TrEMBL record:
UniProt domain HotDog ACOT-type: residue ranges: 1-109
Organism expressing this protein natively: Shewanella inventionis
Keyword flag Magnesium: no
PROSITE patterns named among the record's database cross-references: HOTDOG_ACOT (PS51770)
Keyword Hydrolase appears in the UniProt entry: yes
Protein name: Acyl-CoA thioesterase
Alphabetical UniProt keywords: Hydrolase
């Protein structure tokens, strides 16, 4: 797994328990995963089709820098499936894990179209 991006947890990102709000984390994951999928498919027109359950393992607090790791799991004709791990940058403690995120390449009408990648090209 390669870790591509980082975010610093700021006070505005906290929930009532003074830890990183899951909604904020999911917003960051969606953005970062979408960029990763875009790079894999070499396409800017795609949508998130499936996001599997998210396993939260540890909280993040103000000042923590968290890293987002992504890896390509599989290729469909018009889709890519990626896995995501979020960890603390300093101690590498896992924060959350998403086993399956599927992104679908689409045309201007929102219909799936082949992305043109081959399994051995991944």
């Amino acid at each position: 797994m390669k870790y591509f991006t980082r975010h610093m947890v700021m006070p505005i990102n906290l929930n009532s328990s003074q830890s990183l709000c899951c909604g904020q984390l999911l917003s960051w994951v969606n953005e970062e995963a979408s960029i990763f999928a875009s790079c894999q498919m070499r396409s800017q027109f795609h949508i998130a089709k499936v996001i599997s359950e998210i396993n939260f393992m540890a909280p993040a607090y103000v000042g923590d820098i968290i890293e987002f790791g992504f890896e390509l799991v599989s290729l469909g004709q018009s889709s890519v499936t990626v896995r995501c791990k979020i960890r603390n940058k300093v101690n590498h403690a896992p924060i959350a894990f998403i086993d399956k995120m599927v992104f679908v390449n689409i045309n201007e009408n929102g219909l799936p179209i082949p992305h043109g990648m081959r399994a051995n090209a991944a």
